[in-house]
Every structure is written in structure tokens, then in C-alpha cells.
Design brief:
Number of domains of chain A: 1
Number of helices of chain A: 11
CATH topology of chain B: ABC transporter involved in vitamin B12 uptake, BtuC
Structural class of chain B: mainly alpha
CATH architecture of chain B: Orthogonal Bundle
CATH class of chain B: Mainly Alpha
Order of helices and strands of chain B: HHHHHHHEEHHHHHHHH
Distance between the termini of chain B: 12 Å
CATH topology of chain A: ABC transporter involved in vitamin B12 uptake, BtuC
Number of domains of chain B: 1
Shape of chain B: globular
Radius of gyration of chain A: 19 Å
Strand content of chain B: under 5%
Helix content of chain A: over 70%
Number of strands of chain A: 2
Largest sheet of chain B: 2 strands, antiparallel
Oligomer: heterodimer
Strand content of chain A: under 5%
Distance between the termini of chain A: 45 Å
Number of helices of chain B: 15
Largest sheet of chain A: 2 strands, antiparallel
Structural class of chain A: mainly alpha
Shape of chain A: globular
Helix content of chain B: over 70%
Chain lengths: 291, 319
């Protein structure tokens, strides 16, 4: 029972990270129509910026994290200028290959910058353990869950509760109509990429102390995030959260009770089943075949 | 829009000349170079296959390396554990890969766009997971070693120079088949499906059947490429068939020129040799590679071959 509670908490924590990455993917895809296959590498950059500020510069964790997130804002803007602008109106496959190539560039630039030896980022809570009903829960896992869901709540409020959010939704629904209404479409695109940078950056910062910071960490995380948004529904915010948590739980519980070797296979099996039986996901768009 | 396949003498003569000249290469290329060349031609077979699914039928598939892996592993298992002759295990591998692709394609080809991309990606990732963990049959991370080389009576094809002729012949044959398919009813139907699926369906062409055939054809070519790879390297391991290789195959196709057999071959050769040409760059190589691919995508969306086509005059397409 205690083991089950521990597994569930760590599963939800990992799942919350997948949800953040999935949201970054969805935000970009909805607002700008770009399927960003370099999302995972953005997570890795976020993680390593935090490594640089906290471990290499030796800053206290608070300022270190803020500085890393500021770095991710710049990164989002750079991504907009260098990748999004030229690929903007190209066919889906060009964008997919283009972002994959950018992912390769980022990953290897990170390899040159930070080397191939993984780092072990500190958690603000160290190795502290919280005792809940006899189960020893990692304080960091609980911290991850709280921060991730706070961020998602903030994002939700931003999109649905502010004037800028309404403009972003207008751009997502109909770019041309939004432009005619006097909305600065390009400004909204920049903002979307900044939000994606912040979400992936936060995911990277949070996941670092749970795993190691490895320059190759991007792809595994992105693949799980893809699975999460397929399961949840491709364009749905609650879908990304539920999908992320389900994938995190399936990974942890599957590894513990079924097979640790096939835990990733389990996740992709569920994803393919969802694609076949319910391509719109749990919450997602009706048009499961939207190209 | 795809141009009508008017096989202009210029293009045909040029292709045949290139193929004939390629026969002389083993005389001038040294040991390591010929191995890379073999790899390039084997990739070209997989990419010509991918061209059916992606270039003609417009299916975005990220599973090509998985199918190459299916072909490689089937022939590896049959020729080591079962002890079949490679001449028998290669055809079985090709057919087996085709059957696997039908079983996968039947359910997932209902999906489109990035949904299809993600489902095929899921297949490729799953293939690597199974190959890594099913130790008793697929050998786990160690893979399968001591796969027998091909042999003709009295002429063992044990070295890379001899193997080149096998690969050359396979590529010539598969290119010719691909061209025949391209100008056949099936080829036209595949392109029609890509250009306008609804209109094609309305013209009572079975859209699902055409897509499935394109998908299976691409897997059959991949299976052959995988089997040829297995008997050249005499060793297969999961890493050779990872998702990143599927992306490289797509990149080869796009760099060379999608929807074109000559483009498929050009792209494969260029992308395979690129790491060798840039070896001085060391670890920075992949940064340059990725950046270069991006530049080609942005400035030459129809691939490198579009440059040649312009020079041959607009009519002289090798499509």
C-alpha cells in the first residue's frame, strides 16, 4: 500500500512534467499551426540552463531558476525568428523535418556546451522526505506536482481570463480574421513561442533533480509528451493534463508491476490503441483526422 | 502538381549512363569508401520505397527504419538460428516485412497528417524496445552477430567490393520496378490520392486500398534494404533501426527531391557521404548537418535535383 502511494505520487509528478511539455506542444500547434518536434530539446535546454546557473555559477536556486527561465524566454524568441518565420507556411512534413533538424542542432550544440557527462541538479528540497499516512514521499515530487499545476492554472487563467489570451485564441481560430480585427498576429506568435519556452523550461528545471540532466534527455521526454497529448486529445488543455498523468502513472506502475523493460512499450501501445479507437483522445477535437 | 511521366530520352540516357558508370566505381574507390558507398545504395533502396508512401501517396511515415529493421532481423534470425541459406532468407524477409506492414497499415492508415506521423513513430519506437528486450530471439542490445555473407557457387561475396555489385544490381532492379510502378495505374492512383483524396475516392478509386499498397510497397523495399544490410554488416543491433534513422530516410528523400526516384538515390548518396566529407568538424558535425538540412528545406523545397532539372530544361524531369 505504501509502495503504491509512493508510485502514484512519483507517477503524477513525472506525468505533470509530461503535461507541461504537452501543453507547450499544443500551444504552439494550436496558435501557429507548427508541429514542433524540437519540443524535447527545448526541455533539455531549460534543464541545462538551470544546471549552469545553479551548479556552474553557484547561484541560490531561486534566482538560478528565474535566470534560466529568462534564458528560455530569449530562446523562445530566437526559435520564433530562426525556425518559425522561415517554415511558417510550409507543408506539415517540411515543418516536421525542419523542427527535427533544429532539434538535432540544439542537442549537439548542448553536447558541445555541456559535455556528455550527465549532471545531477539539486532540488530545493534536497533529498527530504515527507511522511504522509506512513508513506515516505519525496518532497521534490510533491513540489513538482504543486508547481506544475500552479503553472497550468496560471496558463489557463491567462488564455481564458485575460484580453491578451482572448487575442491569442482569436489568432488560433482564424489568423486572417484576427488580423482584420486589428490583432497583432505576429506579436501573438512571439508570445506563443515565449510561453512554449517557459513551459518547457519549467519542465526541464523540475525534471532535472528527478532524473539526471543528460543532453539526450529531450527525445524520451518529448515522445512521452506526444503519447500524453494523443491520449488526452490533441488540442485540449485538460486533455494534456489527464494524458500526462496517465502516461506518468502507466510508466511508474507498469515498471513496478508489469515489466520495467517494457514500460515505454506499454505507453506507446496505449497511444496507438487510442489513435485507432479514439483518435480524438479523451477530451479532444472531434476531427480526429485533421491534417 | 505532379508532371506527366514523359520519359524524355535525355533523362533516360542520363540515368542509364550514371548507372553504368557506377559499375566502374569499385575500381577507383578504396576499402572504406566502398563500404560507405554500399551503405548509400542500400539506403537508396529504402528511400525509393519511402518515396511510394511519402512522395507519391503523401503518407507521412516515420516507420521506415522500423521496417528496415524487420527485414534485417528476419533474415538474421533465419540465417543464423534456423540455418537457412541467405538466398532463401532474404526473400522471406522481404515478404515478411510486407506482411507486417499490412498488419500495421490496415488499422493506422485511417489516420492523416501528424496523427499518422505519430502512430508510425510509435511503431518505430516500439520496434526498438522489443528488439532491445526480447533477448532470446532478437539478441537484446548485443544484437545478432555472425550473420553469414552471401555466396555464389565458387565466388563468395565476402568483401565489400564484391558486395557492391550485389547492391548495385538490387538498386538497379528496384529502381526499374519503381519506375514501372510509377507509370502504371497504381502509380497514378497513388499520386491522385495525394493530390486530392476526396476527388479520387469520388472517381471510385479505392483510396484505402491504394494507401495500403503504397505503404506495403515502401515496407517491402525497406525489408530488402534491411536484409541486404544484415548480410553486408554480418551483424544487426537495435541502434541501426532507431527512430532517428527513419528521420534520416525522410531527410534523404526531401533533400534529393520527393516524388522522384533519381532524387531518392541522389539524396541517399549525399546524406550518407556527408559525415565523411565533414569528418574534420568532429562533434560539431551534426550541428552543421542539421543546419544544412534546414537551409535546403527552406531554400530548395523541391530538393537538390530541382537544380539539375532546371539545367536540363523544364521538360527534362526524371520524375
Amino acid at each position: 500500500m505504501q509502495q503504491l502511494v509512493q508510485l502514484i505520487v512519483s507517477g503524477v509528478a513525472v506525468g505533470a512534467v509530461y503535461a507541461l511539455v504537452g501543453l507547450a506542444f499544443i500551444m504552439v500547434n494550436e496558435a501557429t499551426g507548427v508541429v514542433n518536434f524540437a519540443t524535447g530539446q527545448m526541455v533539455a535546454i531549460g534543464c541545462f540552463l538551470a544546471v549552469s546557473t545553479s551548479l556552474q555559477l553557484g547561484l541560490p536556486l531561486g534566482p538560478a531558476y528565474l535566470l534560466a527561465l529568462a534564458g528560455m524566454v530569449f530562446f523562445g524568441v530566437a526559435f520564433y525568428a530562426v525556425v518559425f518565420r522561415p517554415l511558417q507556411d510550409r507543408p506539415v512534413v517540411t515543418v516536421i523535418i525542419g523542427t527535427v533538424m533544429i532539434g538535432i542542432v540544439i542537442q549537439n550544440a548542448a553536447l558541445l556546451t555541456w559535455g556528455s557527462v550527465p549532471f545531477r541538479p539539486r532540488s530545493p528540497f534536497g533529498r527530504q522526505v515527507v511522511d504522509v499516512f506512513g508513506a515516505a514521499l519525496s518532497a521534490h515530487a510533491l513540489f513538482v506536482i504543486v508547481v506544475a499545476f500552479l503553472m497550468i492554472a496560471l496558463l489557463y487563467f491567462f488564455i481564458y481570463g485575460t484580453a491578451i489570451g482572448a487575442r491569442m485564441r482569436a489568432v488560433a481560430q482564424d489568423r486572417d480574421a484576427a488580423r482584420l480585427m486589428g490583432i497583432g498576429v505576429d506579436r501573438m506568435f512571439v508570445l506563443t513561442w515565449i510561453i512554449a519556452g517557459l513551459l518547457t523550461g519549467a519542465a526541464g528545471i523540475l525534471v532535472g533533480p528527478m532524473w539526471f540532466a543528460d543532453v539526450n534527455m529531450g527525445d524520451p521526454i518529448a515522445l512521452k509528451a506526444f503519447a500524453a497529448i494523443i491520449i488526452g486529445g490533441f488540442s485540449s488543455v485538460p486533455g494534456a493534463i489527464v494524458g500526462g498523468v496517465l502516461v506518468g502513472l502507466a510508466e511508474m506502475l507498469g515498471a513496478a508491476y508489469i515489466s520495467s523493460a517494457y514500460k515505454d512499450g506499454l505507453v506507446f501501445l496505449v497511444m496507438i490503441l487510442f489513435l485507432l479507437v479514439r483518435p480524438q483522445g479523451i477530451f479532444g477535437e472531434r476531427i480526429g483526422q485533421r491534417a | 502538381m505532379m508532371r506527366l511521366p514523359v520519359a524524355l530520352p535525355m533523362a533516360v540516357i542520363a540515368s542509364c549512363a550514371v548507372f553504368a558508370l557506377a559499375l566502374l566505381l569499385p575500381a577507383v574507390v578504396s576499402g572504406y569508401g566502398i563500404r560507405i558507398l554500399n551503405l548509400a545504395l542500400i539506403s537508396a533502396i529504402a528511400v525509393i520505397g519511402l518515396n511510394f508512401a511519402f512522395g507519391y501517396a503523401g503518407l507521412i511515415t516515420l516507420a521506415q527504419a522500423g521496417f528496415v529493421g524487420c527485414g534485417a532481423y528476419i533474415t538474421a534470425i533465419l540465417s543464423t538460428m534456423v540455418g537457412l541459406s541467405p538466398w532463401l532468407s532474404i526473400p522471406i524477409a522481404v515478404v515478411g516485412t510486407g506482411v507486417i506492414s499490412l498488419a500495421i497499415g490496415l488499422p493506422i492508415l485511417r489516420l492523416k497528417g501528424h496523427y499518422l506521423a505519430l502512430a508510425t513513430l510509435g511503431f518505430n519506437v516500439s520496434f526498438v524496445i522489443v528488439a532491445t528486450n526480447w533477448k532470446s530471439v532478437m539478441g537484446g542490445t548485443d544484437g545478432i552477430s555472425s550473420i553469414p555473407p552471401l555466396a555464389l557457387p565458387g565466388w563468395p561475396i565476402a568483401n565489400d567490393h564484391r558486395y557492391y555489385y550485389v547492391v548495385w544490381f538490387a538498386l538497379a532492379l528496384t529502381s526499374w520496378c519503381a519506375w514501372r510502378i510509377r507509370v502504371s495505374h497504381l502509380g497514378l492512383a497513388m499520386i491522385a490520392v495525394r493530390d486530392d483524396e476526396i476527388a479520387t475516392g469520388a472517381a471510385s478509386v479505392g483510396v484505402t486500398r491504394i494507401k495500403l499498397q503504397a505503404f506495403a510497397l515502401s515496407a517491402i523495399y525497406a525489408g530488402l534494404a534491411g536484409a541486404l544490410f544484415a548480410h553486408m554488416a554480418n551483424f544487426v543491433a537495435p541502434d541501426d533501426f532507431a527512430l532517428s534513422h527513419s528521420i534520416v530516410y525522410l531527410a534523404m528523400l526531401i533533400i534529393g527531391g520527393e516524388g522522384s526516384i533519381a532524387g531518392s538515390i541522389t539524396g541517399s548518396v549525399i546524406v550518407t557521404f556527408m559525415p565523411e566529407l565533414m569528418r574534420d568538424l568532429g562533434t560539431a558535425y551534426l550541428i552543421v548537418f542539421g543546419g544544412l538540412m534546414l537551409v535546403i528545406l527552406i531554400f530548395l523545397p523541391k530538393g537538390l535535383l530541382s537544380l539539375v532539372n532546371l539545367r536540363l530544361g523544364r521538360a527534362g524531369t526524371l520524375r
